[in-house]
């Protein structure tokens, strides 16, 4: 069962990788079109067709326009394939998690490897939900699959450990409550950072910046929508994260005799919480620019990463269950 | 999200210009600054940044040994960091200053909002603006089912809007929960802080190691703890007088050596004289009412019997502290300061004291080196000891650790090494002077933390409110709608039937408002109850 899980995860990574390549193809073809079709009126037409049902693209009249719209069609096809592959990858990913859980006879959140595996799955699943509701955001898939491939490959190469049951300190129903909510909130925050970065790039592009990182945003959806999505995801994840931290404190009271002891993990959870609260405040304050607020959200995610990787690798504390040495 | 700064500005000062006291003006300005959202943001950030050293540097409250080690490793830097409070970040002046300022700002921010909110809750939804078609949402309903203001108000009330009818106008507002939630949330933050304060003033805790057996029982007094701290409002005499005996400690391990379960069984002597047996474990502390007992760790205490050269024997059960290795290798010292008292003279010979220093291995390897246990369970228990004879230095009045030999006495030659040996259970070691040491077996020990933490219930309650408030604040949406029924005599083209104009204003920007408005308009157009009546009228 454990070997099966490993295989499924490997296939999931491959599927994310191919999805990423497919997104990149979509992006490249889209660029080619954007360049050649600058003056062509077909541009608007095709642009409007993206994401619409049926893909009714008028056969272009002038031969000069054949190339652009054909590559646009190809780009769209590549994008659809990418989305389909992402869904396939997520299914494999889930199967990998389930088999790992069955092999261990418990929820697959017992060490850092499993933790990363679950968080990334939540991120991917939430992405599919977003994509379902707002197909026009498909271009963001390039960033998302990139994040997936990087995190999962890192987990495979550096964090993988053999399946083991839980140690006594983790045998508590609070384990389920605390960890599932932390994992869930982290997955949504992980997804939230994708539109946040995309927004920062796109806002720069819309303000006329044409230097390197901003050029990436040429074909991204509009900045305002990205910003709203960023906020929606963070506003959704924040109360869950808050609950998870509180549940952690209740558990810590039972397990370690104190609800809050400023152990490094607790300290960084506090820091993340304060930074995300700062994001929500900044966004609610009209005098704070939206891109400043969004930077705070990105910073919040960096503090989450610090808590996951930094604290497990560099500090020792009571939360030393990561299975890394 | 609402814009935050949308509280109605203070009415323009009408009073004739007076010379304002500059001190008062400064105070007022500082207060305004402090309670502004920008300041709150800056303070939030300072709080996050200030917490970082608390995770990077060792903290006294978390791990005092590591702080000491840091002083050894960085003799130059450590004292300077210490002056800055870097080893007690969360109790330091600067950290406290930040959160106290933040909470002052918070109170200053929340109180006026509370006043405004109570006013808003009491007041009626405002009258309709003149031009409803200028609002973000607007519709004209021809011959709606609910055509008079009261019928429209009924539709709205059914959908839980707060409604006010003024003549031919209906005003309605919804989503007060947002601000209520926001205020609850921020107020509960203050309650959490209060809970922390109560806990640190009136709480206490003590740690100690408890070896199994009645002779090792301990009672809850300050002297019986190896480490204890009482809040400023707690006196030693306030500690509830209960006693604990560790009857048994059961630890189970997986074949890999990973612990599978722990269970401590204790006898509790309650202050009222009653006695009972109770069990507890990691994750399920012993709750005594007056305090909680938490299981922190466990290990083994070898029982060693020393028979001196005069044939007098003493037995000592010495907890060997685990070294952090998962196979529970223990380290310890068995000291016999009263050994070798000449029975004829009854005089103690200070240079004839004996001590054994070494390791305890619950599962010793079959072959040397005997330096680490192979498994946490006692499969092949053995002690590996070095014997010392001489002056243990216990009379020098220098407090030493009971778990370590006084190294100075070894260095200055007053304590001499006289051999070393590995002993299995039941084995006896005869020393050069004919005295013997016998390893009789072991007893388990548990390390316990006993704590009383008032304020936790308050904090828990506050956290529940905090979460509820947060949800209300994040997902609540304030919005207003107005309906205006055109007077029948306005010469409408439909003759007798009426014309209703509707407008909607989302006070919290949110994408779903257009849909909600459309549904509302549809409901008014064919009012669920009114619709039935209308159809009857046609037939
Ligand atoms: C301990 C410090 C604080 C924390 C952890 C905190 C946390 C939060 C959080 C998480 C929210 C999000 C809820 C929402 O967006 O609706 C929020 C909202 C808000 N906070 Fe704070 N807050 C703190 C201090 C303050 C202070 C000092 C002020 C006033 C200067 C303030 C004013 C507000 C306001 C007005 C909102 C509502 C924003 C809106 O309308 O959506 N907060 N706070």
From TrEMBL, chain A:
<feature type="transmembrane region" description="Helical">
    <location>
        <begin position="115"/>
        <end position="132"/>
    </location>
</feature>
<keyword id="KW-0472">Membrane</keyword>
<dbReference type="GO" id="GO:0017004">
    <property type="term" value="P:cytochrome complex assembly"/>
</dbReference>
<dbReference type="Pfam" id="PF01578">
    <property type="entry name" value="Cytochrom_C_asm"/>
</dbReference>
<feature type="transmembrane region" description="Helical">
    <location>
        <begin position="267"/>
        <end position="285"/>
    </location>
</feature>
<dbReference type="InterPro" id="IPR045062">
    <property type="entry name" value="Cyt_c_biogenesis_CcsA/CcmC"/>
</dbReference>
<dbReference type="InterPro" id="IPR017562">
    <property type="entry name" value="Cyt_c_biogenesis_CcsA"/>
</dbReference>
<feature type="transmembrane region" description="Helical">
    <location>
        <begin position="77"/>
        <end position="95"/>
    </location>
</feature>
<feature type="transmembrane region" description="Helical">
    <location>
        <begin position="175"/>
        <end position="201"/>
    </location>
</feature>
<protein>
    <submittedName>
        <fullName>C-type cytochrome biogenesis protein CcsB</fullName>
    </submittedName>
</protein>
<feature type="transmembrane region" description="Helical">
    <location>
        <begin position="139"/>
        <end position="155"/>
    </location>
</feature>
<dbReference type="GO" id="GO:0020037">
    <property type="term" value="F:heme binding"/>
</dbReference>
<keyword id="KW-1133">Transmembrane helix</keyword>
<feature type="transmembrane region" description="Helical">
    <location>
        <begin position="229"/>
        <end position="252"/>
    </location>
</feature>
<feature type="domain" description="Cytochrome c assembly protein">
    <location>
        <begin position="109"/>
        <end position="319"/>
    </location>
</feature>
<feature type="transmembrane region" description="Helical">
    <location>
        <begin position="292"/>
        <end position="315"/>
    </location>
</feature>
<keyword id="KW-0812">Transmembrane</keyword>
<feature type="transmembrane region" description="Helical">
    <location>
        <begin position="12"/>
        <end position="29"/>
    </location>
</feature>
<dbReference type="GO" id="GO:0005886">
    <property type="term" value="C:plasma membrane"/>
</dbReference>
<dbReference type="InterPro" id="IPR002541">
    <property type="entry name" value="Cyt_c_assembly"/>
</dbReference>
<keyword id="KW-0201">Cytochrome c-type biogenesis</keyword>
Automatic annotation (TrEMBL), chain B:
<keyword id="KW-0472">Membrane</keyword>
<dbReference type="Pfam" id="PF05140">
    <property type="entry name" value="ResB"/>
</dbReference>
<feature type="region of interest" description="Disordered">
    <location>
        <begin position="486"/>
        <end position="505"/>
    </location>
</feature>
<dbReference type="InterPro" id="IPR023494">
    <property type="entry name" value="Cyt_c_bgen_Ccs1/CcsB/ResB"/>
</dbReference>
<dbReference type="GO" id="GO:0016020">
    <property type="term" value="C:membrane"/>
</dbReference>
<feature type="domain" description="ResB-like">
    <location>
        <begin position="37"/>
        <end position="518"/>
    </location>
</feature>
<keyword id="KW-1133">Transmembrane helix</keyword>
<feature type="compositionally biased region" description="Low complexity">
    <location>
        <begin position="487"/>
        <end position="498"/>
    </location>
</feature>
<feature type="transmembrane region" description="Helical">
    <location>
        <begin position="458"/>
        <end position="476"/>
    </location>
</feature>
<feature type="transmembrane region" description="Helical">
    <location>
        <begin position="93"/>
        <end position="114"/>
    </location>
</feature>
<protein>
    <submittedName>
        <fullName>Cytochrome c biogenesis protein ResB</fullName>
    </submittedName>
</protein>
<dbReference type="InterPro" id="IPR007816">
    <property type="entry name" value="ResB-like_domain"/>
</dbReference>
<feature type="transmembrane region" description="Helical">
    <location>
        <begin position="40"/>
        <end position="57"/>
    </location>
</feature>
<feature type="transmembrane region" description="Helical">
    <location>
        <begin position="183"/>
        <end position="204"/>
    </location>
</feature>
<dbReference type="GO" id="GO:0017004">
    <property type="term" value="P:cytochrome complex assembly"/>
</dbReference>
<keyword id="KW-0201">Cytochrome c-type biogenesis</keyword>
<keyword id="KW-0812">Transmembrane</keyword>
């Amino acid at each position: 069962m454990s070997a099966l899980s490993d295989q499924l995860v490997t296939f999931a990574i491959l599927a994310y990788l191919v999805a990423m390549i497919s997104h990149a193809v979509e992006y490249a073809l889209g660029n080619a079109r954007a360049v050649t079709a600058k003056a062509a009126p077909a541009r608007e037409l095709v642009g409007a067709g993206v994401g619409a049902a049926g893909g009714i693209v008028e056969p272009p009249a002038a031969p000069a326009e054949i190339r652009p719209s054909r590559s646009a069609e190809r780009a769209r096809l590549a994008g659809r394939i990418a989305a389909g592959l992402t869904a396939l990858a997520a299914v494999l990913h889930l199967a990998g998690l389930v088999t790992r859980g069955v092999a261990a006879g418990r929820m697959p959140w017992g060490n850092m490897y499993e933790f990363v595996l679950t968080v990334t799955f939540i991120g991917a699943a939430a992405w599919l939900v977003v994509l379902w509701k707002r197909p026009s955001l498909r271009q963001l898939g390039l960033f998302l699959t990139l994040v997936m491939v990087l995190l999962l490959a890192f987990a495979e190469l550096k964090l993988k450990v053999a399946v083991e049951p839980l140690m006594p300190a983790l045998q508590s129903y609070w384990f389920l409550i605390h960890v599932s909510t932390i994992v869930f909130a982290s997955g949504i925050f992980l997804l939230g950072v994708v539109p946040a970065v995309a927004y920062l790039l796109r806002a720069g592009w819309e303000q006329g910046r044409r230097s390197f990182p901003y050029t990436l945003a040429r074909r991204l959806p509009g900045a305002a929508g990205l910003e709203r999505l960023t906020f929606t995801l963070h506003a959704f994840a924040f109360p869950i994260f808050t609950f998870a931290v509180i549940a952690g404190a209740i558990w810590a009271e039972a397990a370690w005799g104190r609800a809050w002891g400023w152990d490094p993990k607790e300290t960084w959870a506090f820091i993340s919480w304060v930074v995300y609260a700062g994001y929500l405040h900044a966004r609610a304050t009209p005098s704070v620019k939206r891109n400043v607020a969004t930077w705070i959200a990105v910073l919040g995610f960096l503090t989450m990463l610090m808590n996951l990787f930094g604290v497990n690798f560099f500090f020792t504390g009571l939360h030393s269950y990561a299975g890394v040495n | 999200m609402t814009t935050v700064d949308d509280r109605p500005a203070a009415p323009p000062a009408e009073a004739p210009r007076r010379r304002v006291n500059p001190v008062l003006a400064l105070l007022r300005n500082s207060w305004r600054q402090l309670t502004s959202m920008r300041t709150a943001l800056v303070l939030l950030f300072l709080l996050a940044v200030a917490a970082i050293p608390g995770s990077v540097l060792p903290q006294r409250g978390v791990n005092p040994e590591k702080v000491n080690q840091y002083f050894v490793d960085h003799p130059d830097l450590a004292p300077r960091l210490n002056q800055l409070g870097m080893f007690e970040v969360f109790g330091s002046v600067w950290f406290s200053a930040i959160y106290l300022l933040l909470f002052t700002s918070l109170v200053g921010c929340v109180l006026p909002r509370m006043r405004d909110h109570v006013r808003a809750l009491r007041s009626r939804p405002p009258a309709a603006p003149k031009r409803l078609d200028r609002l973000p949402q607007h519709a004209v309903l021809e011959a709606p089912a609910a055509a008079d203001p009261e019928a429209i108000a009924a539709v709205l009330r059914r959908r839980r809007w707060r409604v006010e009818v003024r003549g031919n106008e209906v005003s309605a507002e919804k989503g007060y929960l947002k601000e209520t939630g926001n205020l609850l949330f921020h107020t509960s933050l203050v309650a959490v802080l209060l809970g922390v304060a109560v806990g640190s003033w009136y709480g206490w805790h003590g740690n100690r190691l408890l070896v199994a057996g009645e002779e090792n029982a301990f009672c809850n007094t300050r002297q019986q703890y190896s480490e204890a701290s009482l809040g400023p409002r707690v006196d030693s005499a306030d500690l509830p007088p209960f006693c604990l005996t560790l009857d048994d400690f059961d630890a189970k391990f997986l074949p890999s050596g990973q612990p599978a379960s722990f269970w401590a069984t204790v006898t509790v002597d309650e202050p009222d004289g009653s006695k009972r047996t109770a069990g507890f474990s990691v994750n399920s502390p012993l709750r005594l009412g007056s305090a909680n007992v938490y299981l922190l760790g466990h290990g083994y205490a070898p029982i060693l019997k020393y028979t001196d050269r005069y044939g007098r024997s003493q037995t000592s059960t010495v907890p060997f502290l685990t070294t952090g290795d998962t196979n529970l290798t223990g380290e310890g010292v068995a000291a016999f300061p009263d050994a070798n008292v000449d029975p004829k003279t009854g005089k103690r010979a200070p240079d004839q004291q004996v001590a054994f220093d070494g390791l305890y291995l619950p599962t010793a390897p079959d072959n040397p080196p005997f330096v680490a246990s192979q498994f946490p369970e006692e499969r092949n228990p053995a002690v590996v000891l070095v014997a010392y004879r001489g002056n243990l230095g216990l009379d020098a009045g220098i407090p030493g650790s009971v778990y370590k030999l006084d190294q100075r006495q070894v260095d200055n030659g007053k304590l001499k090494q006289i051999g070393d040996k590995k002993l299995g259970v039941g084995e006896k070691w005869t020393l050069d002077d004919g005295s013997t040491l016998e390893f009789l077996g072991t007893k388990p020990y548990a390390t316990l933390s006993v704590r009383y933490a008032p304020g936790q219930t308050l904090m828990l309650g506050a956290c529940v409110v905090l979460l509820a408030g947060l949800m209300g604040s994040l997902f609540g949406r304030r919005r207003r709608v107005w309906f205006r029924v055109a007077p029948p005599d306005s010469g409408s083209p439909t003759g007798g039937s009426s014309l209703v104009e509707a407008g909607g204003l989302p006070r919290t920007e949110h994408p779903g408002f257009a849909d909600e408005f459309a549904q509302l308009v549809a409901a008014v157009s064919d009012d669920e109850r009114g619709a039935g009546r209308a159809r009857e009228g046609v037939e």
